[in-house]
Amino acid sequence: MNVAGIILAAGSSTRFADGHKLLVEIDGIPIIRRVASALAHSRVGEIVIVTAADSDAVAKAADSGRWRTIENPNAGHGLSSSLSLGLQSIDEKADGVLVALADMPGVSAKLIDTLIAAFAETEGRSIVFPVATGGRRGHPVIWPKGLIPELSALSGDTGGREILALHRELWCPVPCEDAGAFTDIDTRQDLAVFGQIEIQTTRRK
């Protein structure tokens, strides 16, 4: 099953005090590179990172790897503009696309491979995403090839939530207890909380 990966990294990081959240290092590794590396160590095929046209620092922080970076000149138009650009950039032969958020440094290659395995079991026909015991949906999300036109036509800052709501019959939730699938970094406080989650996770291993 050929699943392409798109990392949405064109946000302005306005809620993060004193700097850009994707440049912050956790254990010496910038957040954007942590996410890119997770995808690179998984079964995802090609990987595209979408950054804002004025965010050279994000591309530099991602550094080189099994991914390529493209700039979105319309990043200010919302998340959907980056999603659309990413979808235009992937191989049209891909069976599906995994969409990851660049501000979720706890996402692991193991989780991604679990999602891809579930996607393969549905023969690439379902929308696959992690779900917590209480029903909370997480990220990344794998979208089947057939929904790419609808995703590409989105506008604003809603991402794929609208399409997800329209196609409940395609849902394939994957039970997940990994906090990284539900934790994003928007503020300094979020970063502090993530650090505590990392410590607790390490202690359990």
Whole-number mean pLDDT: 92
Give the terminus-to-terminus CA distance: 31 Å
- Can you tell me the CATH superfamily? Spore Coat Polysaccharide Biosynthesis Protein SpsA, Chain A
What share of residues are in beta strands?
15-25%
**Structural domain count:** 1
Q: Determine the CATH topology.
A: Spore Coat Polysaccharide Biosynthesis Protein SpsA, Chain A
Question: What structural class should be given to the helix and strand makeup?
Answer: alpha/beta
Q: What spatial form do the alpha-carbon principal axes imply?
A: globular
Reported CATH architecture: Alpha-Beta Complex
Specify Rg, calculated over alpha carbons: 16 Å
Tally of contiguous helical segments: 7
- Element-level helix/strand string: EEEHEHEHEHEEHHEH
Q: Got a strand count?
A: 9
Mind describing the biggest β-sheet?
5 strands, mixed
Which class in CATH terms?
Alpha Beta
How much helicity do the residues have?
A: 25-40%
Low-pLDDT stretches: 201-205
Element layout with pairings:
Elements: E1 3-9, E2 25-26, E3 29-30, H1 31-40, E4 47-52, H2 56-62, E5 68-72, H3 79-89, E6 96-101, H4 109-121, E7 127-131, E8 141-144, H5 148-152, H6 161-166, E9 171-175, H7 188-204
